[in-house]
Amino acid sequence: MEAAIVMQAKSLYLASPAERVRLIRKRIPASHLKELADSMHILQGRLLSILNLPSASVRRKSRQGAMLTTEQAERVVGLECLIGQVAVMVEESGDTIGFDAAQWVGEWLTQPVPALGGATPADFVETMTGQKLLSGFLARSRAGVFA
Predict the structure, then answer these.
(1) Model-level pTM?
(2) d(C-alpha 15, C-alpha 7), whole Å
(3) Which end of the chain is more exposed for a tag (fewer CB within 10 A), N or C?
(4) Element housing 139 (H / E)
């Protein structure tokens, strides 16, 4: 059975930009970051660092049941879209048994990539431009451009 985070990530990836904007404007509970970090098999503090989110503020909001700012929510949605993109790519390849897209992205973010000049994908996740670059990189990887 597919994890809830991965199902949500696929929905976000397949959603129209207008649908994503509506979700971002509604904002996301700060507590969602703990669930996302757990699904990616990384520490919440590491996820906050990767997304350049203030740890103390996010933890306080989480305890209070508060929402992330629109800017923070946009970063989270962008990361979840990358997870969704990976999940869809693997599904389309036909070999999903034992594959966890969220965990794979969690590991991939920390690995230096020669095609990114030796930088890690995590170095690009905190901005929308960086997330678009990573999405394009994943699409080209699938097409075998970097194979």
Answers:
(1) 0.93
(2) 12
(3) N
(4) helix 128-142
Is 100 within a domain? yes
pLDDT at residue 93 greater than cutoff 70:
yes
Closest CA to 33 of 11, 51, 15: 51
If one counts the domains in the chain, the total is 1
Among 13, 60, 5, 83, CA closest to 38: 5
CA dist 54 and 47 (Å) reads 11
Instruction: Kindly state whether residue 133 falls inside one of the protein's structural domains.
Output: yes
For residue range 21-77, list pLDDT tens digits in order.
999 999 999 999 999 999 999 999 999 999 999 999 999 999 999 999 999 999 999
Domain containing 110 equals 4-142
User: Is 147 a domain residue?
Assistant: no
